[in-house]
Write a structure and sequence with these properties.
The chain has 248 residues and is mainly α. Helix content is 73%, strand content 3%. It contains ten helices and three strands. The protein is elongated.
Length: 248
């Protein structure tokens, strides 16, 4: 019996929800036990300190906390084992709402057109980069995660591809030319290596530019691929609701 109790206590140390449940139940046990130890505390304070303290006992609140802690732990264990989950209808409604909210930050066509522009020109303006950032920021926020595992997995891959591309652009693109256009400043891939911009046309510059251009193409292709896979996963997961979203 003693080994079983120890084993149960140790199991509560593992996951975060177990630790929370342990704290709630422990607090409840303390409150439930107050009628037993509070009188001794009052007597010791009166005898050794010469003061009288008044304490309220709350065994009822203790019982409530124990019940809530154990119920919370039970439900979390069921969810962790996959025995308790949202219904398919609830999951689709939730994920459809998240997908709709994502499209309201930027349409997928805006992202694709931006990727194509960057690939064709090795350049961009901020308005071209903004849809990428909007999708990446939205999908990174835990509040916007999808409930369907496959859809969330593809969304994470898409978000990571966007993050990698935006990071590449931020570290390898520079303002060129110095004057500002109506659309803002133009950012170009290493203009000092490109003979059509600021480069001197040396073999070393051309080699470096070609290599960075190759890396850029890989980033762009990966972003396009993960976006298509994400949309395909949404079609499978959302079913008829995906068609409704595309029609609105």
């Amino acid at each position: 019996m003693g080994d079983w109790i120890v084993e149960k206590i140790l199991s509560l140390r593992g996951k975060l929800y177990n630790r929370l449940a342990l704290m709630v139940v422990a607090t409840g046990c303390i409150l439930v036990s107050t009628p037993f130890w509070v009188p001794y505390l009052e007597a010791l304070a009166n005898k050794h300190l010469g003061i009288t303290i008044q304490t309220d006992t709350a065994p009822l609140w203790g019982c409530i906390l124990i019940f809530l802690g154990l119920t919370y732990h039970y439900l979390q264990e069921k969810i962790h084992r996959g025995e308790l989950s949202f219904s398919d209808t609830d999951r689709r409604h939730h994920d459809a709402r998240m997908f709709k909210n994502l499209q309201e930050t930027a349409r997928f066509t805006e992202v694709r057109e931006g990727v194509e522009y960057i690939g064709a020109n090795h350049a961009l303006f901020n308005y071209i980069r903004e849809p990428l950032r909007s999708h990446g920021s939205f999908l990174h926020n835990p509040e916007n995660h999808f409930l369907d595992f496959g859809l969330q997995k593809s969304a994470l891959a898409y978000q990571q591809a966007i993050r990698s591309l935006v990071t590449f652009i931020s570290t390898h693109f520079f303002v060129y030319p110095e004057e500002k256009f109506e659309a803002g400043f133009q950012f170009c891939l290493y203009p000092n290596f490109n003979p059509d911009r600021q480069g001197g046309g040396t073999d070393d510059e051309l080699t470096k530019y070609i290599e960075f251009g190759r890396l850029l193409e890989l980033e762009l292709a990966h972003t396009e691929q993960t976006q298509m896979e994400f949309i395909a996963a949404a079609k499978v997961s959302l079913g008829s609701e995906f068609a409704v979203l595309q029609a609105t």
